[in-house]
Amino acid sequence: MTKLSVVILNFNGEKLLRQFLPSVIRYSAEAEIVVADNGSTDRSLEVLQQEFPQVRLIRLDQNYGFCGGYNRALRQIEAQYYLLLNSDVEVTHGWLAPMLEIMDRDSAVAAVQPKILSHADKNKFEYAGAAGGYIDALGYPFCRGRIFDKVEEDNGQYNDEREIFWSTGACFMIRAQIYHQFNGLDEELFAHMEEIDLCWKIARIPQKVCYTGRSVVYHLGAGTLGYKSPMKTYLNFRNGLILIFKHLDAGELIYKLPLRVGLDWVAALMFLLKGEPANAKSVFRAHYHFLRDIGRHRRKRADLHRAHPSYSRKNVYTGLVILDYYFRSRKHFRSIIPDGTTLS
After folding, report:
1. pTM across the whole model
2. Which of UniProt's keywords are assigned here (predicted)?
3. Cα–Cα distances in Å, from 73 out to 66, 106, 289, 290?
C-alpha cells in the first residue's frame, strides 16, 4: 500500500495542469501523484499523457462534481493517507513533511491542512481555507486569516500548529480509513462545503482536524467557478442549510434554522442592492431545492445522529460571526477570538 497519494481532480483544466502540476511533481517525492479526470472535453487527457507521463491517470466517464469525482477516484487508490489537492494550487519545497509528521505522530488526527496563501498576492491568505476553519453558532464558516471577504496579510501570525474545526478542500490530507468510514464526501452537495460536512462528521467520532503553518501552498482560487458566480452562490446557500439541518441537535435546529433562513433573505436583498439579481435569485432557488428535498435530508440526518449522536464543540465559536463582522467591526480572526481563547 502506498503511504500517501496526492490526488488532483481535473475538469477541462489543461491550462491549470500545465501551470501547477510541475510544482507538485517537483516537490512531492514522498507521494504517488494521481490526476483523476472528471470527464474533460478539452485536451487535458492529451496533456497528461504527453507532458506528464509520470503521473497516474484515472479516467472518469463524466463530470461527477467535486464530491462524486473524488469518491469514485479514491475507491481506486490504495493508500494510508490521501491528499486532496485542487488543480490550481502551487506547492512549495517541503510542503508534505509537516503534515505527514503530524499524522504519523498522533493517531487521533484524522486530517490536516497547510497554510493557504493567495497565488495572486503571495503576501495574503487565500479565501478558501486560509489558516484553518471554524464555524459559529449558526454554522457559518470562517477562517483564521479570512472573515467573509476580509483577507489578512500573512505576517507570520498563524505560523503555529493547532486543532481547527474544518480543513479546506483545496489542500486536505486525510486518513483513507476515515474517508471511507463516512463513504467519502456527500455527493448531494456536489461542490462547496463538502469538506466542512466531512470534518463535522470527524468531530462526531471524535477525532481531530489540524492545521500547520510549517507547510505553505499558494491557491489561485475560483478556478472552476468565479467568486460572484450564481452557481457558486446557489451551492453555498443550499449546502449551508443542508449542513446545519444534518448536524445541529434538534433543540438548536428549531430556532437556528429559521434564523439562518431569515439572514439568507437579507443576503438576497443585499445582492439586489448591489445590482446582482442572478445571485439574489440563486438564494431563493437554493431554499426551494432544500425544502423540496427535505425528506432525503431528514433520512440522512437520522442515520448520522443514530450512528454518532453528538459532536465535539471544542472548536465551535458560540457567538455569531455575522454580528461581529457587520455590527461590531471585528474584521480579523483575532479580534473575534483572541489568542489563548479556548472554544468549547
Report:
1. 0.95
2. Glycosyltransferase, Transferase
3. 11, 27, 28, 28
- Residue 156, class by beta-carbon neighbours within 10 Å (0-12 exposed, 13-18 middle, 19+ buried)? exposed
Instruction: Write the pLDDT tens digit of every residue in 32-69.
Output: 999 999 999 999 999 999 999 999 999 999 999 999 99
Torsion of CA 187, 189, 191, 194, to 10 degrees: -90
Cell numbers that stand for 160 in this block: 503555529
Low-confidence ranges of the chain (pLDDT < 70): 222-227, 344
Catalogue the E-assigned strands of 48-166.
56-60, 79-85, 89-91, 109-118, 133-135, 141-143, 146-147, 150-151, 161-164
Cell 486532496: give the residue: 84
Go through 220-244 and write b for each residue having 16 or more CB atoms within 10 A of its CB, e for each that does not. bbebbeeeebbbbbbbbbbbbbbbb
Residue 221 phi/psi, 5-degree rounding, is 80, 145
Q: Which three cell numbers stand for residue 185?
A: 464526501
Domain extents for the chain? 2-219, 230-312
Q: Is 36:60 a contact under the CB 8 Å cutoff?
A: yes
CB 137 within 8 A of CB 314: no
CA 77 to centroid of chain Cα atoms: 21
3-class DSSP state of 251? helix
Architecture of 2-219 per CATH? Alpha-Beta Complex (3.90)
Contact 170, 116 (CB under 8 A): yes
Instruction: Answer whether 187's CB lies under 8 Å from 241's CB.
Output: no
> What's CA 125's distance to the chain center, in Å?
15
Sign of CA dihedral 91, 94, 95, 97: positive
β-partners of residue 6 are 33, 83
Sign of CA dihedral 140, 129, 195, 202: negative
Residue 156: strand, helix, or coil: coil
Instruction: Give backbone dihedrals phi and psi of 155, rounded to 5 degrees, phi first.
Output: -115, 25
